[in-house]
Specification:
- The chain is an alpha+beta fold.
- It has 10 helices and 10 strands.
- The protein is 54% helix and 15% strand.
């Protein structure tokens, strides 16, 4: 049977995250956005609440939650600030492949310390000229006895300046393209690891984003995740799980914009009445509400499938593409409802609009999501006929 009611535990998770967003994130979000500074104290508090390790099994010190459970939490955190949420989220993105594909030794060595004391992680896939096509990456790894020698530079790395661990994708043979990629767990203290200055971004300015460089870094063979040549498959499998979590962040951003615009429309007087009484504004608000609800349901379905171990590549791509577009459209319309005030930094809707744009780019661009959806559709047609 299909059901839409939260369990008592899910309601408690939602309330806990909503309270955290209201009491911890919102009071500092505007300042960190304005200054482009990283809210380290918020991250430490988030770690204590278990928000950085939701999917880690309880035997390793994590929360042992499902993907849908975490999406319920994530919407509330992102509604507080997408920039802060994305730094929380990326730690999950980086450690999830260890949860799913790591050996027992790797889980003991990496998951337990990440859960027991404040730690952050980064997912290192993109490069300056490598984003949607990871098979063309330039970062290399070569076997040297009991170690891999890692060389190259990763770009747009969230938490890059604060991570204790990097999950790094590198090629052992560029000619093999996808089949040449491996995945390494790289502690940030290893010699030859360094990071650049924070990148000055349009939105999500509270998240720390840097380049990360690897110069002759000796990574133990025991830190290889899965087998050689399996890195690309593991990266894509992890994204099927984590894309719903970034999609629900878009829902949180859109929801915040809708709530602000609705309140403003009820008190802003034009032509002698609140602008909320004008049909043009009502249509904008109605479109916001229906699209946000549709996006949330797409996310929930993709997360529900993930929790049941069912392949959800198409549904995760649908959720991410649709929710990101909704966030961009809703925040733009929220600015429109505010009028001139919405275009100033005096009101938070301009921040929400800036924050929304990045969601259409990272974790797979809007165009790549559509390619995934179309390819899955065409494969299904071939199987059917």
């Amino acid at each position: 049977m299909i059901g839409f009611e939260f369990t008592p535990e899910q309601k408690r998770l939602q309330e806990k995250a909503r309270r955290f967003a209201k009491e911890v994130i919102l009071p500092v979000a505007a300042r960190h956005d304005r200054d482009g500074t990283f809210p380290l104290d918020v991250m430490k508090k988030a770690h204590r609440e278990g928000f950085l390790t939701p999917l880690v099994p309880k035997e390793y010190g994590g929360q042992g939650l499902g993907v849908l459970d975490n999406c319920i939490i994530a919407e509330e955190l992102a509604a507080g600030c997408m920039g802060i949420y994305v730094s929380i989220f990326v730690s999950t993105l980086a450690i999830y492949p260890i949860i799913q594909f790591g050996t027992e030794d790797q889980k003991e060595r990496f998951l337990k310390p990440i859960c027991s004391k404040f730690s952050m992680a980064s997912y290192c896939l993109s490069e300056v000229t490598v984003g949607s096509d990871p098979s063309s990456m330039k970062t290399t790894a070569s076997l040297d006895g009991d170690h891999y020698l890692l060389n190259g530079t990763k770009m747009w790395i969230t938490n890059g300046g604060y991570a204790d661990y990097y999950l790094v994708f590198a090629t052992m043979d560029p000619q093999k393209r996808h089949q040449g990629i491996i995945c390494l767990i790289v502690p940030s203290h290893l010699e030859g690891v360094s990071h650049g200055e924070p990148i000055d971004k349009m939105g999500q300015r509270a998240s720390n984003t840097t380049a990360v460089r690897f110069n002759q870094v000796r990574v133990p063979k025991d830190n290889l995740l899965a087998g050689e040549g399996e890195g690309f498959k593991k990266a894509m499998a992890a994204l099927d799980i984590t894309r719903p979590m970034i999609a629900i962040g878009a829902v949180g951003v859109a929801r915040s914009a809708m709530e602000l615009a609705t309140r403003y429309a009820k008190k802003r007087i034009q032509f002698g009445v609140p602008i909320a009484e004008h049909q043009a504004i009502q249509f904008l608000l109605a479109d916001m509400a229906k699209d946000i609800e549709a996006a949330r349901l797409l996310v929930y379905k993709s997360a529900w499938l993930a929790d049941r171990g069912v392949k959800n590549s198409q549904e995760a791509a649908m959720a991410k593409a649709f929710a990101a577009d909704v966030a961009m459209r809703v925040t733009t319309d929220a600015v429109q409802i505010y009028g001139g005030l919405g275009y100033t930094k005096w009101h938070p809707v301009e921040k929400l609009m800036r924050d929304a744009k990045a969601i259409q780019i990272y974790e797979g661009t809007a165009q790549i999501m559509r390619l995934i959806i179309a390819r899955q559709m065409l494969q299904e047609v071939e199987r059917t006929f």
